[in-house]
Amino acid sequence: MHMPQPPEAAPPARLLRLPEVIARVGLRRSAIYQRMSEGRFPRSRSLGPKCAVWVEAEIDEWIRAVSQIPS
């Protein structure tokens, strides 16, 4: 008896801590949080009272979008 294969699951989202986000985007902590409050930067997720993370794919997309803006 042949069982159908389950659909391929998407790989789990990779989560980034603030130091890696800072290194990738070249903004300081205060600038990141300022842009988040203005809706111009991906929102962080809270994993606990002192643990904020960002979804890597959202940061990568933000970098691509910003790099396409003409100077």
From TrEMBL:
<dbReference type="InterPro" id="IPR052931">
    <property type="entry name" value="Prophage_regulatory_activator"/>
</dbReference>
<protein>
    <submittedName>
        <fullName>AlpA family phage regulatory protein</fullName>
    </submittedName>
</protein>
<dbReference type="Pfam" id="PF05930">
    <property type="entry name" value="Phage_AlpA"/>
</dbReference>
<dbReference type="InterPro" id="IPR010260">
    <property type="entry name" value="AlpA"/>
</dbReference>
